[in-house]
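Predict structure. Input: DUF305 domain-containing protein, 153 residues.
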Amino acid sequence: MFTFTERPVRRTAIALSTLFLLAVAGCAATASDSGMAMPDRPMAGMSMPQSASSSGMMGQDHAMPPGMNMPRTVFSEAEMGMHRAMMMATDVNTQRTWARKMIAHHRGAIAMSQALLGSDATDAEARRMAQAVIDAQTREIAELESWLERHPG
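Output follows.
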């Protein structure tokens, strides 16, 4: 069956797989509880809970694995919301899943661009590009949503 040296490796692999699944389940529960997992809804709920933002410790809202202290930027909330929404954007059909994930991704790009425009950024070219991203991604979201309506599950 197994040699003595294979058992610890197998146990480690099983333990890591279990931890990964628990972490994903925890993120899914956090996202769906906060309304951020709705792939057809705007990502309006992308703000971090006060406990995480005030302590400076990401992960206290289960958005990041414990022990991963990431620097907070003006883009952190948009990034976290985008990643949650992308992970939750699924469908029975691969093409519909792709469309839902792209919508979440584009909404994240819009949120990051809005964060730049709402920041202290003064470079005119960067601000112009951020607005161009908002305009283009908004059009692409409409196109993807239209495709989803025309191609029901």
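Residues 23 and 65 are 7 Å apart (CA to CA).
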